[in-house]
Amino acid sequence: MNRPDTFRPFARLLHWVMAVLVLSMLFIGAGMVSTVAEKHASLVAIHRPLGMTIFILALIRLVYRLRHPAPPLPADLPEFQKLAAHASHWLLYALMIGMPLIGWGMLSAGNYPVTMFPGFHLPQILPSDPGLFAWLREAHRYLAWLFFLTFLAHMGAALMHGLIRRDGVLQSMTGGKAPR
Amino acid sequence: MMHDPENRRPPAHVGWRWAVIGLAVVGSAAVFGYVGGWLAPGRLSPHTLINALQAGGGDHPGYRRNHAKGVCVAGYFDSNGALAGDSSAGLFGTGRTPVVGRLALPGGNPYAPDSSVPIRSFALQFNLADGEQWRTGMNSMPVFPVATPQAFYEQQLATQPDPATGKPDPAKAKAFFGAHPETAAFLSWVKKAKPPASYVTETYESLNAFYLTSAAGKRQAVRWKVVPETAASGETAPSASDPDYLAADLVKRLASGPVRWHLVMTFADAGDPVDDATKAWPDGRRTVDAGTLVIESTQPQANGPCRDINYDPTILPKGMEISGDPLIVARSAAYAESYLRRTREEGHLPGAERPKEDQR
Fold first, then answer.
1. Which positions in chain B touch A132 (Cβ < 8 Å)?
2. Which of A162, A163, A165 is CA-nearest to residue A174?
3. Which phi and psi (to 5°) does residue B227 adopt?
4. Would you say the C-alpha torsion B7, B13, B19, B20 has a positive or negative sign?
5. d(CA A27, CA B331)
6. Is the pLDDT reported for residue B171 higher than 80?
């Protein structure tokens, strides 16, 4: 079942599950800070445990990826596109792991309880410090924008591979048959 | 391995294929822009709301955007266990819970004279033994002027100083209150209210309703208040010679011992409004005295333990829940924006104004 030109099934499963979770997370985050309406509270309540779920899945995924390298990119792909592909993939890994840690650290530095659900909270990972809170809070905002832009580039590139180049790169993650 | 590029067929309708890709990218960005509010300018955001408060109170870097003037207090809550059957929150069993609080004046001006408003506020953070927290912000008034965040925002716009004259425009205020009959109860109270001479003689009310949930899963709507043990002496605000008499009074009283309030929980009857802070509940509701709040010390807010606390009313322990009152969540969202602005200033982030103390 492990074709050399596709990601392994477990890697594909993690990719698509996390794609849904990460996109939801970006939209929830952008939406919750945009409004004073009642959905603000329910969105914040989802944002924290969803972030920790993504953090744990990203760590599992990183270990799996290091053990099972990605299928090679097409030999005729221009060098800069290969570089962009690799750089954006590792950027996405860094953000999937970094954003939840920044969020956790930011709540800690801001004296907020890191509540996962009523009655269960995570320990503080940073000391109370208003300046540190503000830096992390701003980093969380700007890195979220970078995350979304990287997603747009990732999706655009995947569609370009699938629709224009038709080189099997998209199928390496969908598991479909590459066009002949 | 990958396919031989020589054998790949050129795709048909390349233009349409690029259009699909472009649509996917631009469409996703547009949805994100709408959700994030950049493409929805009519949405009331925390940013807009805090801008309105800032316009009313003036620019005071490092300070809260509302209730800017205040002092930190510290002490504990001695629970008598009377609420243990109604809420599974740990602090309502019998025992002591440490408290970090803040007594303050409403408004965004940290230099406002204490006699300028008849309202005082009391914020509390209960630090439960298991690491949970309860944060609440209460005010010394019987009802809130408005019921919704939108009306609160409009009230700020209608009562803020006109940039041309430096004073609020009475016509705008009149138009606002005329269009908002729900403000009547507050207005009739505030007309008679006098600025009290002390923080410690006031009763502070949650105004918003919340739910208590019991271990058995029973959920009941409540409002709470802290009722002082110290009776008011009848004197109102001292002369204008000391604009900071409240802090001085508190120091003087604490020098001769702790001051106490009772935490009183009022349970709604069926049909009482749970989502409208402009409506007081009628007398005769079940009330429970849950224990004694003991304040032992006070500290200036510039370096006191309350400075870096955002008294967000949605931070509740298990056993307490927010109600459908829309003001609660709006307070949470707006306080977070205020907290970010003042911590940016406190931490000297690029682009943030410096707190005044640093400019001396």
1. 347
2. A162
3. -110, 125
4. negative
5. 22
6. yes
User: Is pLDDT at B1 greater than 50 in this prediction?
Assistant: no
Encoded amino acid at A122, one letter: L
Integer Cα distance of A47 and B212 in angstroms: 24
Token duo for residue A39: 């959905």
Tell me the fold of A9-72+84-174. Fumarate Reductase Cytochrome B subunit (1.20.950)
Nearest to B2 among A35, A75, A132 (CB): A75
Q: How many residues does chain B have?
A: 360
Q: Are A167 and B3 in contact (CB under 8 A)?
A: yes
Q: Has B67 been annotated as catalytic? A: yes
| Helix, coil or strand: residue B238 | coil
With tokens 């048909």, the residue in question is: B12
Distances from the Cα of B162 to the Cα of B108, B171, B172, B299, angstroms: 16, 11, 10, 35
**Chain B neighbors of A40, CB-CB under 8 A:** 329-330, 332-333
CB within 8 Å: B326 and A38: yes
The answer to whether A9 contacts chain B (CB < 8 Å) is no
Residue A171 C-alpha, separation from nearest chain B C-alpha, in angstroms: 11
Tell me the C-alpha distance between B152 and B46, whole Å: 12
Q: Hey, which bits of chain B come out as E strands?
A: 70-80, 94-104, 121-127, 133-139, 204-205, 210-213, 219-228, 259-267, 287-300, 320-322
User: B197: closest CA among B168, B235, B160?
Assistant: B235
Q: How many CB atoms lie within 10 A of CB B161?
A: 14
In one-letter notation, the amino acid at residue B61 is P
Domain boundaries, chain A: 9-72+84-174
Cβ of A35 and B347 within 8 Å? no
Query: Which residue has tokens 């403000």?
Result: B183
ipTM: 0.94
Query: What is residue B268's predicted lDDT score, i.e. its pLDDT?
Result: 98
CA angle B331, B71, B263 (to 5 degrees): 65
Residue-wise DSSP of B35-63? HTTTT-TTS--HHHHHHHHHHHH---TTS
Give the 3-state secondary structure of residue B143.
coil
Instruction: Provide the pLDDT for residue B4.
Output: 52
Q: What is the reported pTM?
A: 0.94
